[in-house]
Amino acid sequence: MAKKRKSDASRLDEVDRTMYSTFCSAANSLSQIYTQAMSQQKLAFQAGERHAL
Predict the structure, then answer these.
(1) What distance in Å separates the CA atoms of residue 25 and residue 11, rounded to the nearest whole number?
(2) pLDDT exceeds 80 at position 5
(3) DSSP code at position 53
(4) Measuring CA to CA, how many Å separate 30 from each of 25, 42, 52?
(5) In whole angstroms, what is the distance from residue 46 CA to residue 39 CA?
(6) pLDDT above 90: residue 47
(7) How far apart are CA 5 and CA 3, in angstroms?
(8) CB count, 10 Å around CB of 37?
(9) Residue in 38, 34, 31 with CA at minimum distance from that of residue 46
(10) Which PANTHER family does this one have (predicted)?
(11) What's the pLDDT tens digit per position in 10-30?
């Protein structure tokens, strides 16, 4: 029985690692998208300023 519990625990650890890895990947992707959006917004603002002159 103890052996089975240990394998169950290691399976849960593997699931936790997988979920953590997936979460980190999603968070990094979201951060990249946000950074790109802010950069694009700055470029659009500057283009609008130039157009207004």
Answers:
(1) 21
(2) no
(3) -
(4) 9, 18, 33
(5) 11
(6) yes
(7) 5
(8) 10
(9) 38
(10) HOLOCARBOXYLASE SYNTHETASE, NUCLEAR RECEPTOR FAMILY 2 GROUP C PROTEIN
(11) 888 999 999 999 999 999 999
